[in-house]
């Protein structure tokens, strides 16, 4: 096809897209005017029904808990895939960082970076833990908390301590933690079956008052398991990628 | 991971014009940030722009009353994703040497 014909094909396709796009935009509700019933219904009943004041968490871990289970396993499978693709092959071996660094000037991690990252590691862990364990009371949840927890591990790496990072996250241990936490979510659902309720039904006591940390039954529990799973998955992925920068294949590939 | 539909009703946003001005500003900044990411040719620099774009997007979600998504975007979009890309770039650069 000649460039000129190609341009006409593009213009026709772009014009068609623009027409449909504008048509779709006309049908949208006005800015700030929420039309659907579901958000309003959930806002009205969620706190009384689940004792969770973090209504988003109530939706994620209770009303559509089964969808979240699927989403959690997407991340689990992604981490498994990374670990599988990046595993050590027969013709690969680790090279020593020291050997690489001998003939070129690798700047040492500055004291400022070491200071800041180490100073932030503790607070980051606390924030991550807080987020993962307070899904029922405020806008947070296992996913957000888990990623923040994983960030704390990468801060340790940024402080220039790859060895400390590796020692803190031995791959087989992290693997098992991830698998157990992911499985625990499913087990919470099966436990409800054992008690004669529907899968993932909230069978635990809801606690005394909405907004208390020990309220909301399985919502808090599932959020915690998700937090552990997510942090393990991200530590695993980052660890594998870090390791890859230190791996070399024979023949220079 | 969590999918959230933001509910914005005029009565919850006070004063309304101030919040709306903020929302319009941050929408513009996000558009500018996305363009900057696309137009940057140097991959390393692009990753830094991507990280800044992640922060802008997080502020956008905050402006549209989705604090849960803000937290996810802040950690994934501004920290973890740029870090992964930087590691991939480091790996590629080593192979080129």
Write the layout of secondary structure elements.
The complex is a heterodimer of chains A (253) and B (97).
Chain A: H1 3-26, H2 38-50, H3 55-63, H4 65-85, E1 92-94, H5 97-101, H6 111-133, H7 142-158, H8 162-168, H9 171-194, H10 218-244, E2 247-249
Antiparallel strand pairs in A: 1-2
Helix pairs in contact in A: 2-3, 3-4, 3-10, 4-9, 4-10, 6-7, 7-8, 7-10, 9-10
Chain B: H1 16-39, H2 43-63, H3 67-96
Helix pairs in contact in B: 1-2, 2-3
Notable characteristics:
heterodimer, A: 253 residues, mainly alpha, two-stranded antiparallel ribbon, B: 97 residues
Total domain count of chain B? 1
State the helix count of chain B: 3
This entry's quaternary arrangement is heterodimer
Overall geometry of chain B comes to: elongated
Give the overall pLDDT of chain B as a whole number.
85
Report the helical percentage of chain A.
55-70%
In which order are the strands of the major sheet of chain A placed?
1-2
What is the domain tally of chain A? 1
Which residues of chain A form runs of ≥5 with pLDDT under 50? none
Question: pLDDT under 50 segments of chain B (min length 5)?
Answer: none
| Helix/strand order of chain A, N-terminal first | HHHHEHHHHHHE
Structural class label of chain B: mainly alpha
Q: Mean pLDDT across all residues of chain A, rounded?
A: 84
Rg of chain A, nearest Å: 24 Å
Q: What pair of chains forms the biggest interface?
A: A-B, 36 and 25 residues
Strand percentage of chain A, roughly? Answer: under 5%
Profile the largest sheet of chain B. none
């Amino acid at each position: 096809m000649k460039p000129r014909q190609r341009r006409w094909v593009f213009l026709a396709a772009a014009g068609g897209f623009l027409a449909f796009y504008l048509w779709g935009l006309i049908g949208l509700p006005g800015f700030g005017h929420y039309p659907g019933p579901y958000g309003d219904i959930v806002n009205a009943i969620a706190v009384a029904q689940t004792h969770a004041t973090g209504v988003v968490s109530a939706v994620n871990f209770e009303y559509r808990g089964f969808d979240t289970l699927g989403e959690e396993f997407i991340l689990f499978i992604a981490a498994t895939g990374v670990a599988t693709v990046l595993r050590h092959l027969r013709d690969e071996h680790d090279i020593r960082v020291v050997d690489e660094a001998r003939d070129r000037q690798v700047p040492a991690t500055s004291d400022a970076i070491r200071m800041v990252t180490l100073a932030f590691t503790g607070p980051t862990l606390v924030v991550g833990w807080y987020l993962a364990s307070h899904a029922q009371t405020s806008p947070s949840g296992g996913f957000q908390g888990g990623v923040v927890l994983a960030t704390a591990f990468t801060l340790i790496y940024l402080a220039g301590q790859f060895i400390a990072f590796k020692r803190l996250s031995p791959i087989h241990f992290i693997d098992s933690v991830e698998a157990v936490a992911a499985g625990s979510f499913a087990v919470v659902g099966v436990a409800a079956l054992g008690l004669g309720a529907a899968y993932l039904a909230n069978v635990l006591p809801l606690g005394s008052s909405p907004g208390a940390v020990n309220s909301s039954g399985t919502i808090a529990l599932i959020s915690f398991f998700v937090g552990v799973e997510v942090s393990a998955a991200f530590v695993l992925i980052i660890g594998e990628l870090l390791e890859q920068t230190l791996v070399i294949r024979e023949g220079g590939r | 991971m969590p999918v959230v539909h933001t509910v914005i009703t005029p009565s919850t946003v006070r004063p309304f014009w101030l919040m709306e001005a903020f929302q319009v500003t941050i929408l513009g900044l996000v558009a500018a940030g996305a363009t900057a990411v696309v137009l940057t040719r140097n991959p390393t620099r692009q990753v830094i722009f991507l990280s800044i774009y992640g922060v802008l997007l997080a502020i956008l979600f905050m402006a549209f009353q989705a604090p849960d998504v803000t937290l996810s975007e802040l950690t994934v979009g501004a920290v973890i994703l740029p870090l992964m890309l930087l590691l991939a770039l480091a790996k590629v650069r080593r192979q080129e040497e």
